[in-house]
Amino acid sequence: MNCAEVPPAHRFCVAPMIDWTDRHCRYFHRLLSPHALLYTEMITTGALLKGKRTDLLNHSPEEHPIALQLGGASPADLAESAAMGEDYGYSEINLNCGCPSDRVQQGAFGACLMNTPELVAETVAAMSARVTIPVTIKCRIGVDESEDYVFLEEFIRKTSSAGCSKFIIHARKAWLQGLSPKENREIPPLDYNSPARIKQDFPHLTVILNGGIQTLEQIQELSPSFDGFMIGREAYQNPWFLTEGETHFWGTPPPERHAIAHAMIPYIEQMQRDYGSSIHSTTRHILGLFGGLRGAKGWRRELSENAHDAACAKDLIESALSHISLELISH
Fold first, then answer.
1. What does the alpha-carbon distance between residue 34 and residue 330 come to, in Å, rounded to a whole number?
2. pLDDT given at position 195
3. Of 179, 193, 220, 323, which has the fewest beta carbons less than 10 angstroms from its beta carbon?
């Protein structure tokens, strides 16, 4: 499958990131990229089955296309949670098989699932039987001392035979002992060869590369080997990169940054009015909007220091924007 045959939204997507890619972040990212596929934070089956599912699954129509990432190890619970996701309008259900945190290890899910491909295959089959939308997997290239390609190939072969046709592969091993989640995103070396070989050996599958993608030059260099790219921290810390990807993949002219900032005001006001959301719960995600431009420090400082106590989103955003304008004029 070449890139032209892959559903367009799969070519460029934003990774599920705990504490970052909530509904407010996704709304902001959608303004920057109208076409990229967005993912929720990982939501566990326990939270959905025993908690406030509406609070967890609600999202704005503007966020679409959007995928729901689930965490869990019970095929029955994951199938039930997947059905909830479809009922709430998500366009894809993604199973987390890559998170190495202590929390997921205690529940024997996330990256732990890579050690039990038969269980994952059973889970994929159970989920697929309950929903009509795609069921996909996000995984690592290996776990701990596993022999990289043999281990990964077996995992892909067994789980794809159960009905999964799309894999997002984070091109690092997951070390379940000795490294923190943050260290697991940075210390294990990147290995793009193993995911590329998966695409060669399973050409009928959609293979999305995740991990270390920070520039369009990397995407252009790696494009012949993959169907698409998932951007993680770079999309959050340097959100303007999403506009670059949008232009590269879909030819969309980049928006004006001030217009994006102003477009967030009615959204923040709606969230305050309808859900009692704080201004800070949204503005914390837009700190990087003017990254690399003069005045960006003032923009970030204004939002960081004053959002908690601000009563009016419009006044706060306008005040933060004044740093950009003044700084640009003074230089």
1. 34
2. 97
3. 220
**CA pair distance 156, 101, nearest whole angstrom:** 22
Q: Are 75 and 122 in contact (CB under 8 A)?
A: yes
Residue 330 in this model has a pLDDT that exceeds 70: no
Separation CA 239–CA 88 (nearest Å):
27
Domains for the chain: give ranges and CATH numbers: 3-250 (3.20.20.70), 257-330 (1.20.120)
Catalytic residue, from 13, 97, 99, 112: name it.
99
**What tokens were used for 235?**
């999309």
Which helix (H) or strand (E) segment is 37 a member of? strand 37-39
CA–CA separation, 200 and 226 (whole Å): 9
* Euclidean distance between CA atoms 211 and 187, whole angstroms: 12
pLDDT given for residue 189 in this prediction: 83
Residue 3: band (very low, low, confident or very high) from pLDDT cuts 50, 70, 90 = very low
Say yes or no to pLDDT of 98 above 80: yes
Average pLDDT, the chain: 92
Spatial neighbors of 256 by CB under 8 A, at least 6 apart, are: none
The pLDDT assigned to 103 comes to 78
Say which residues have a Cβ less than 8 Å from residue 23's Cβ, sequence separation at least 6: 58, 59, 60, 63
Our answer to whether residue 139 is catalytic in this structure is no
Confidence category of residue 329, pLDDT binned at 50, 70, 90: very low
